[in-house]
Input
Amino acid sequence: MSKSSTILGQFSVKRIAIDAVLIAMYFGLSLLSVQIGGIKITFASLPTIICAMLFGPIDGFLVGFLGAFLEQMLKFGFTATTLLWVLPPAIRGLFIGICVLLLRRHMSVDTILQSKRPFVYFAVCIVSGIIVSTLNTLVFYVDAKMFHYYEYHMIFGVFWIRIASGILSTLLMSAAALPVIAALKRANLVPSKKVIS
Output
């Protein structure tokens, strides 16, 4: 059996369909975001968190990347920085998915759903929020320099506010992800055992 058929074999039709629905959810939630100066308040990464928890880093990366790509294409079209803007949400999915693999004892879906104190899960999600907020600031800087709208206070002057809002929105998304994951498992839309290999 070839390596490519093994990789494709891991992606069942159901799993691909769930990824597609989560990409569409990401896109829909991104349209409901609010932009205040250099700070964006959004719940678009909720599907990325759900996907990374259920299926791991590859699916988490794809949902973040493709969802953000659709958002960028609708709002701005394809520009010189489009691929830079889609990387932070994709890296969130990759980071959480890798942590699920490395911290199986504390980060498995079953452990989190049965535990009354999923501290490791929330800590990983908060770190992902800090990473994404920092990367977004760097991409904002590059974009502003390339398209000549750079103003220090708009990009770096609100950096700590951006980090704080990233942490707060990540906490809310992480909490909201738990009942969705539980509902997906109850509906047998994902296997009872971890599908990450």
Remarks:
- The chain has a mean pLDDT of 87.
- The chain has one domain: 12-186.
- The radius of gyration is 17 Å.
